[in-house]
Amino acid sequence: MGYLLLISFIIHGITLVIIRQLKIKIDQPAVTKQTLDQQKKEIEELLAVYLLEIREENDKLLEAINHKTETKSKVNTGSNDTQVQKPILSSTQQTTSTAKPETEKYQDYQPLLPKDEDEPVETSFAAQVLALADRGYSAEAIAKELNRGKTEVELLIKFHQR
């Protein structure tokens, strides 16, 4: 009876150790979740700060660009309009005058066409044997006509009859 009591205490001790280990494993995700939540909040705050800095820099850049364009437009308002229209007209006149010689240059162009020469098609030995067999020739006659062995012709016919 003493042995049974000793075995019972050992089993209870082992189960308590296992239960404690399982509780530790269950509690770990809760701790890691808290640390992840803290890290998430810190990252969100950092991103918000960076976003504000980028917006401020973009606003400054837009103001600088607008200021430069306003000063350039005030200086070049009258003279720019007439100068821009003249080159456009002259460039269109140039394209029409240069387009005609180019079309004349390629007027007699004829695209290359494939040659109509028929190359002789050689039929394979197997095709020749099967064609002659379909016409009713015997294996010996086919072998004589194609200058091949009788057994070679017979085997080829047998393979293709399947």
From TrEMBL:
Renumbered residue ranges of the record's region Disordered: 71-108
Domain of life assignment: Bacteria
Keyword field: Coiled coil
UniProt key word Coiled coil: yes
Any matching Pfam family: DUF6115
Coiled-coil region: 33-60
Polar residues compositional bias, start-end: 74-100
InterPro entries: DUF6115
Name of this protein: Swarming motility protein SwrB
Lineage: Bacteria, Bacillati, Bacillota, Bacilli, Bacillales
